[in-house]
Every structure is written in structure tokens, then in C-alpha cells.
Amino acid sequence: MSKDAFVDFQNVWLAYNEALLAQNHFAVEDINLQVRQGEFIAIVGPSGCGKSTFMKLTTGLKMPSKGRILVDGQPVTGPLKISGMAFQAPSLLPWRSTLDNVLLPLEIVEPYRSNFKQKKDEYVARARKLLQTVGLGGYEDKYPWQLSGGMQQRASICRALIHEPKMLLLDEPFGALDAFTREELWCTLRDLWTEQRFNVILVTHDLRESVFLADTVYVMSKGPGRFVVQREIDLPRPRDLEITYTPEFTNIVHELRGHIGAMRKSGAVINQ
Amino acid sequence: MNKKTLERWSPWILLVVTILVWEALCRGLNVSEFVFPSPSRIWQQFVEFRDVIAGHAWRTLWVTMAGFGIAIVVGVLLGFVIGSSRIAYAAVYPLMTAFNALPKAAFVPILVVWFGIGIGPAILTAFLISFFPIMVNIATGLATLEPELEDVLRVLGAKRWDVLVKVGLPRSMPYFYGSLKVAITLAFVGTTVSEMTAANEGIGYLLISAGSAMQMGLAFAGLVVVGAMAMVMYELFSYVEKHTTAWAHRGSQNE
User: Considering its fold, how many domains does chain A have in total?
Assistant: First the structure.
């Protein structure tokens, strides 16, 4: 199983610091997870259940207290350059044009960094093409504050993809957008993924979003942060927005909602 | 006159009105010019002593700019160190705050002992009084980085230095230019205060000697000149700020 896994978590535990570790207080507990090459997974769960912690573990920004994480067959020992990240806040730099914002990773990550000056034209062309694919053609030279929230988020996703990462990590990327813009961006992400087949780990609150986009949805519980449900989404691809109105789709969403509801209830009892 | 032109001219209108009221009060109440000179009297003395005033003003100006120059260098360096390291921030900030609370005029006698009467104390007082806002603003700009953005860059293998240069410094530029406006006016205060007790030249010295000779018109003319110089420098840095960091002044619809 773990041989062909692209991301492989083996009994991973994480406490944020030594003191919490001594008290056996873990942010995430006993995470076992295997993700295939090119698989799109979504992680859903209540706020504060350690979803973002999970992302930091995957990218190597945090090291596990116990257990092992392998990505692409290699143990994770530090920040993982083959990943790109985008968050709920687009966090674009206001003094850079959209194009320059998208180019920022190439000024930092090797091997692009060393030849950035010589190959700048090539990289600019690449960034323009990427911006065009997400529907930002013509906005390359605008500044972020001249763009709408949805457009900023598109640019932020381009920034995460410009160095052609094997893995894209998204932490509630569409959380701050209105419903229509959000659905548009689902489709943008779907198309990018269909074309490039990078791995995606999408952290979200939105069950419909997770079911529409992902191959597999994981439900995470809160305190301790664990994966409690793994649900394969066997809806046929390519998926169209229409699918979200079918009974099959609704049933899966309903089922996942049931798991979360049950967890919140039992959580409430424990908290009393 | 539409609203916009009115807005542009409003400071000048207020100035003229103030001068007129002042003049009217002085004349109407027959205030002695040795107590509170009227604008016309100040102007008269200003013209009469214009060469003297110009000499002292020039001295005050360049001394202030020298102190201010040192303040920029020291303030930026200190701010950079404090803003880029949490430990340095924790260690230095409380001490700097305490230092900033000291009245800088109290340093003048000490500086006189060290450097004698003249430009030394004046430059240093201007520096001491004006580097603090620059330092604080640079440090704040660097220290308030969005954690998400830092993650995005760190995962790409960005070193602290990369993050500081690509994100931290450009981000702190509006804070920096904002602080220059504040600092330059403070620097004039520093120079003038120091010159009042520890110099034989400069507007501060002029104020003291005019005061002791009961030449109130001249003393007021000196004050007006310092105010005008500080005002011009403030506007200059304000202009530089607007034209270098336009991205930080966005959002007004009538641009």
C-alpha cells in the first residue's frame, strides 16, 4: 500500500511544544493516511480540529513528535519545495503587480532562483499563460487592490502553482468569497487539476465543495485531531456544477454532514 | 469656487484670517509690542534683520539636516535589527521606550561638557530626538508580517533574509516615509532647543538674544522661520512618500 503512495503518513502525532508533549496533549493524533499520485483529497472538520496543522506537517513546516511522513518516497525533513500553498487570505503584495506577485516564488525557489535574470522572459510568459488559464488575462499588470476578491484568490492560486509543484495545499481558499464566485473558482481549480494532475490537499468547511472537487474526503474530529471517516467520492469525472443538484451528490453531502453532526453532539457532551 | 479648490486653499485662507485677527487684536487692544508684537511689527523686524535671520536660519537648517541624516541611518539600522529578530525586539524595545521618555533638552548640558558649545550638541540633540520614530516604524513594518505569507515563502525554502528583503522592507516603506515626516519636525525642535543654551549661532541662539534685548518682533520672526522650515521639509517628505509608496495610499475615489 505505502509503496505507491505519494503522501504517506505513518502513525503521526504532533504536540506543539515540549510542555504539551509531556502532558500528552496532541494537536493531531495517530494520523494514518495514504494519498495516491495525483489524487485530490479534501479534509473537512470543525474549526480548530488541526486541519491547518495537518498542512504544516505535509509541507514540512512542522516536524511530527512521533511517527513518520513520507512524500514521494522520501522522509520529510524540512520545508518541501515541491509544494505550493494558498490560504483564505490571498496575501498578495500590494506593491507588486499581479504578474510580479505570481513570479515571486520563482525569485525564491531553486532552480529558478539562480537563473531568474537570464530566463525572465520565459518565466514571464509562463506566468502570463497561467494567469490566462484562470481567467486573469488582461489583468497581469493591475495591482492586487485593483482586483476583486475572487480575482485576487485566482492570482494567489497561480502564485502557488507557478513553480509547477507536485502538491498543492489549499487552506480554505474560497472561504471568504461569495457563493457564485466560489463555484466559479471550484471549476477553475477542477480544470487546472484535470490538466496538470498535481496532488491536491484541500482543507475546507464546505462539504459541497469537498464532494464536488475531491476523490477522497477525510473527516477530522476535534480535540484530539484525528481522521474519523474516509469517504471515496465515486461520482464520475469530469464533474459539472450540475452534478451538485443530483440526489447522488446530495446523499454523500448528507452522509458527511451526519458524521460531523454526530461528532459535534458527542463533543458537546464531553465538553460539559 | 468649488469644493476641491476650497480644500486646497483652505490652509492659506486660515493663515490669512489668523494674521488679520491677530493684527486687529493687537491694534484694537493697543497691546505693547514688547509684550506681544503684531504681525506687521514682526514683518518689519523680519525685513530689517533679514540678513541676520538668514544666516541663523541656514545654520539651523543644515545642523538639523545633519542630525536628521544620522537619525535616518541609525533609526533604519536599529529598526531593521529589532524588527527582524524577536529576541532583539524583546531586549531592545523596553530600553528604547525608557530612553525616548527622557526629555532630550536635559541632554544638552551633558553634550556641552562632551563636545563644547557649537554644532556638536545641536546635531546630536536633533539626532536623539528624531531617530526613535524612524526606528519604531521600520521595526513595526518588519515585525507585522502575515504568517500565511511567511508560510508560503518558507515552504519554498526562503531564508529569513529573503523574506525580509522581498516582503519586510518594501512593506515597511510607507511606515518609514510616514515616520520621516514626524521625525524632521522633531529634529527642528532638537536643534532649536540645543542652540538656545549651547550655541552662538542658529535660530535658537537668535531667539534667546532677541528675547534678552527685548526685541520681541525679531524673536517672533525667528519662530516663524523655524516653523516655515519645518513645514517645508514636512511637505517635501510627504511628497516623497506619496510618490514612492503610492500603493499604500490607494482607495480614494477621486484620484
Answer: 1
